[in-house]
């Protein structure tokens, strides 16, 4: 079987070029009536990801009140490239323009260098008009190698691995110690249930982020993701054999990939290997659905999430996010590992969960 990951790299390396035309390419902002065309292009473009879909615009704007610009380039009535952008403006965390907040991938997705240049130009012009500190693209590869005006830094990695349609083969591919934890959950009778709501997901997720000392997303955000993306957004909840909540994970299905994106576990999860079983149960369901790539998602270097994914036998792949500085004189460092946020994190952990869930959404909207 050819490597899916290698194939995707070949697709990106061998980007198609727009068909020569006598009509000029033109720049536009997405309107509601263009959403179907936009998404059709995204689904066919090798550069594009789930996070380029038009549904992110209403989700981000309605959940957080964040201003967005969804640019596209058109030629001869056909879309040639897209670039979703959002503005984050915060006294505490700075002023920026970039890929959709809370999305791990983003930036220009195009089938020709001309469209790519027009979209880059639009982002540069908007960044200057808004007076932002920096512009950020979030790609799996550098979009501007050799361009000194674009900077990158090593902070995030992603974990992507092929899976097969055979459960036993997938289970045996998990390193022995981690496989033992999965088997523990199986022996204890844990089971996965697909929810058509986000109630149990929010409960498990809010408990997890509270333990980490970070603000929670509003429940409305998860509900909008489920509503907007339909069958491509699944909420899978893990319970014990007597129905107690263990954990829950919201995942995206994209092409032949599954992307577990937001997950969390109750305190009980540690006793019953709940997190290990949850991702195994998702892997089983995704394989049965025809997925052949498991994208374990983004993690920061030096975190527990990073170690957990490595223990599953996944290899870290550096994410060379790109930054172009305008008003700022240094690259952004808005992450929990930054020492200046440690006191805040310690204080947040001491808040009662209901209070943290009330205040958190007002803070997290500024993080991006």
TrEMBL record:
Pfam families the UniProt entry points to: Acetyltransf_6
InterPro entries in the record: Acyl_CoA_acyltransferase, BioF2-like_GNAT_dom, PEP-CTERM_FemAB-rel, PG_Glycine_Bridge_Synth
Residues in BioF2-like acetyltransferase domain copies: 176-310
Signal peptide range in chain numbering: none
Name listed for the protein in its UniProt record: FemAB family XrtA/PEP-CTERM system-associated protein
């Amino acid at each position: 079987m050819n490597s899916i990951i290698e194939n995707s790299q070949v697709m990106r390396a061998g980007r198609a070029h727009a068909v020569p035309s006598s009509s000029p390419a033109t720049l536009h902002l997405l309107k509601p009536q263009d959403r179907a065309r936009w998404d059709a292009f995204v689904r066919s473009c090798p550069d594009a990801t789930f996070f380029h879909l038009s549904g992110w615009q209403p989700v981000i704007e309605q959940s957080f009140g964040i201003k967005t610009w969804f640019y596209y380039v058109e030629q001869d009535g056909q879309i040639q490239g897209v670039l979703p952008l959002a503005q984050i403006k915060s006294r505490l965390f700075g002023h920026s323009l970039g890929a959709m907040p809370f999305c791990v991938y983003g930036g220009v997705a195009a089938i020709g260098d001309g469209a790519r240049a027009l979209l880059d130009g639009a982002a540069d012009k908007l960044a200057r008009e808004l007076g932002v500190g920096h512009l950020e693209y979030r790609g799996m590869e550098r979009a501007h190698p050799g361009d000194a005006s674009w900077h990158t830094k090593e902070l995030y990695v992603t974990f992507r691995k092929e899976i097969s349609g055979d459960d036993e083969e997938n289970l045996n591919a998990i390193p022995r110690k981690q496989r033992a934890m999965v088997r523990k959950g199986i022996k204890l009778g844990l089971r996965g249930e697909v929810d058509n709501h986000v109630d149990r997901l929010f409960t498990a997720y809010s408990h997890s982020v509270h333990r980490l000392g970070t603000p929670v997303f509003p429940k409305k955000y998860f509900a909008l993701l489920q509503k907007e993306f339909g069958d491509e957004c699944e909420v899978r909840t893990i319970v014990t054999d007597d129905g107690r909540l263990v954990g829950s994970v919201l995942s995206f299905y994209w092409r032949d990939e599954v992307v577990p994106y937001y997950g969390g576990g109750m305190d009980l999860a540690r006793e019953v290997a709940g997190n290990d079983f949850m991702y195994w149960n998702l892997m089983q369901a995704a394989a049965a659905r025809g997925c052949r790539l498991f994208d374990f998602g983004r993690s920061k270097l030096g975190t527990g999430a990073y170690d957990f994914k490595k223990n599953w036998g996944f290899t870290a792949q550096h994410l060379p996010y790109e930054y172009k500085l305008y008003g700022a004189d240094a690259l952004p460092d808005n992450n929990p590992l930054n020492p200046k946020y440690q006191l805040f994190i310690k204080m947040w952990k001491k808040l009662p969960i209901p209070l943290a869930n009330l205040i958190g959404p007002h803070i997290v909207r500024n993080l991006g």
